[in-house]
């Protein structure tokens, strides 16, 4: 079985700091692949290279057999990769619905149109509204994004990832800053997605990761020190030493 | 929806005033004020064009006056050759040719300089657009054929079908209608799907790229539209002043355009028009008393930026969601 995403010998350093040190990683179609690791392990740097925001120094990234190492970020989005951001990244001065509608519009491929008002393109607005309903933000559709709470912003991040209809979703700490209840809800929501999308999930919330992930890779100092099924990782001695801590 | 907002009222009153007052001045024998209004309206078109990229696209262009100059020289150079001979290819008084040249050359200049400038962001973008503007300025300053620094007098205005630009009222009418069209065009573009991407890229470029938009390309398109529109205002200005010089392209002129947009209120439809109105009126008023008429502008801008969000139009903003 060929993996959906293949990362081979990826390297990235900032000055003297090696953020990604010879990373090899496979993500299989349909799985939720968790990435855990202490702060500063290079998790976000890895995602940024996969999404195209950062250029790796060396190594290769392959998506469904196609080398995308040097493909610009906006083209990767069209090839079916999307990412969410650890630090919320939305268009704050637009309404919630407008944000999601832009994602739908990107999929629709009709953005180079100058005449008809965007608000009157009903199939785009309806689709965007549907995604908002899925994440439970429908009643906030016409509010200004900046007026929403942190938790709601996190929900918007998920709605955008859904709306971009990407087969591969790179989720960068979607639970960051959420309360226990909200985390639980989001975990359940992602569980429902399982199988229909492939997800690379970076997360600090261990309960969430072990509840969701089929396989987990452990990143420490830019290196993958272990990859395997969730149970195996939980019991791996090196991982416990490096990250989970002795019990 | 349905109900007219405060901003809507201000826009309507302002535009009606611009339509009614100048002809009234002419009829009461105060032709000078019609002149003032013509200059105001023409500069307002330039400000509206700048607002498309500055207000809605977040591109702070500090070289926009270059387009005014290019548009004006697109009238002056063919007219010059038609009068004095040479350069048969373009030597003509034909207004439609002037118009095509003004818009075409401005769009081309915008495409080339924009393609380079838009690789940078923030302060660098400001500096590089200013540098391109100054390049155009120095180029025309060094062109002795067209009197360099001393500028060019246009002896015969562009000849257009139906309209006689030698008639001040007709020229004003053309400028006014052009302003209305420029505003409507801007509104259409801004509200379209293209406009949503442009505004999204202004608000959060990273997000828009992640969604799959090549934001560079969208910005460049807006930049070219804006440049062409500004070139058109130069076509009108050349015909209005009948004297053109490289000074029209100087970076201080670009600064004045920016001033108008920001003072009036960027990313509103009427803001640039209000800004250029205040600019022209204050300049007229104060230049009677003192040569330091720039001083009140500086103070005014500081006041507006510090105390009113969104320029003078910000004063009329209600509690809109």
Textual characterization of the structure:
Chain A is α/β, with parallel strands linked by helices and 247 residues long. Chain A folds into two domains: 1-80 and 167-247, P-loop containing nucleotide triphosphate hydrolases (Rossmann fold), CATH 3.40.50; 93-165, no CATH class. Chain A has nine helices and ten strands. Chain A has helices spanning 43-51, 73-79, 96-108, 122-134, 150-163, 180-193, 206-212, 230-235, 237-244, and strands at 5-14, 17-27, 32-36, 58-63, 66-67, 81-83, 168-172, 198-202, 215-220, 223-229. In chain A, strands 6-7-8-3-9-10 form a six-stranded mixed sheet, with helices on both faces. In chain A, strands 2-1-4-5 form a four-stranded antiparallel sheet, with helices on one face. In chain A, strand 4 and strand 5 form a beta hairpin. The longest helix of chain A is centred in the middle third of the chain and has 14 residues, at 150-163. By secondary structure, chain B is mostly helical. Chain B has a single domain, classed as ABC transporter involved in vitamin B12 uptake, BtuC. Chain B contains twelve helices and two strands; from the N terminus they run αααααβααααβααα. In chain B, helix 2 packs antiparallel against helix 9. The termini of chain B are close together. The model of chain B has no long low-confidence stretch (mean pLDDT 94).
